[in-house]
Structures are given as C-alpha cells and as structure tokens.
Amino acid sequence: MNRAWPKTLRHVAGNGPRLIPSNIMITCETTFDSELLNLPKGRKLTALRNELLHNINLGETAIFRFLRGYLVASLWSSTDDEGEPLDNDFGITSIATESLLSAWAECSRFMRENETDLTHLDDEHNGQNLWLTRCRHGAGFWSTCTDDESAEYAMLQLTHASHGFGEIDLYIGDDKKLHFSNEGGIV
Description:
disordered N terminus, mainly alpha, two-stranded antiparallel ribbon, about 50% helix, two-stranded antiparallel sheet
C-alpha cells in the first residue's frame, strides 16, 4: 500500500492553482485552514465541498480513497422511505456539505487512531468496512477473511474501534440533500 507523499501537490482552492514543493509536508487539513481564513463563510464551505469532492474523485491519497469507500458504502447500504437503496437516485455529490465534512473528519480520525491495523486491506475497502461495521450491517471488518493471525487480530481491533464511533444513519433531508445523523456533532 503506497502512502508516500506526492512529489508535487496541485492545489486549486482559495487563490487559484499553485504547486507546493515536495519538501513541504502538508495535509489537506493544513491547506484548507490556511487557504480559507480570509474567505467569507459561504465561500469557505463551497471551497471545502469542491475540494473534497475533487479529491474523493481522484483518490490520490489514502484518506480520500478511504473516504470514497465509506461514502459509497453509506449510499448502497442506506435506503429511502420506500426501502430503495439511496445509490439508485443519489451519489456522493448529493451529500450535504456538513455531512461530507463530518465524514471526512471521522474517517481521518479513524485512520490516525488505527493506522497499524489498517495495513491489511486497501484503503477503499477499509472505508467500506468502517461504515458497515459501525452501523452493524452484518458485514465489515469482523467478517473479512484473512490467512494470517495478525490480520485476524487487526480485524478484531478495527471492529472494536468502529463500534466505538457509534451507529449513524444517512437520510434525505428537507433540502433534498443526504445527511448523516451525526453531522452537527462533528463539524
């Protein structure tokens, strides 16, 4: 699994495109904070949303591959009022900004806290497993088949960590956007 920093990061939020040299270690959190300090609140959220969606789509870094897996699993495993999977009519771009930020914050935290145990599966699969396990969908880390004892132990640890994040729901709000039931408590 390649978690190396890119040699050059193209960044387009805030003041337009620019290159960041590879000798400067920068995270998306750092970039967003420093770029957005001078933007009005509405533009900050729009810039964050656009940047998140762009990076989720590209999937160039572990967090965005993880986040994509998490969001995709939330869409196909959640249903509307008629019992139809949300991914029939909605996609990642249908998720409200506050919920995208909430998911990003939780996935980032989960990855930081469980870095060692997450090395047994690819990032997108780990994201899916976080969603499925925390929401107790009957699949997830605990049901992942592995051939070695250390991986089995890691899946058990990840299951406990996922349950610690608590169950949440994805629902259609009055604004016709998708919302996570915990969005207000995270962002």
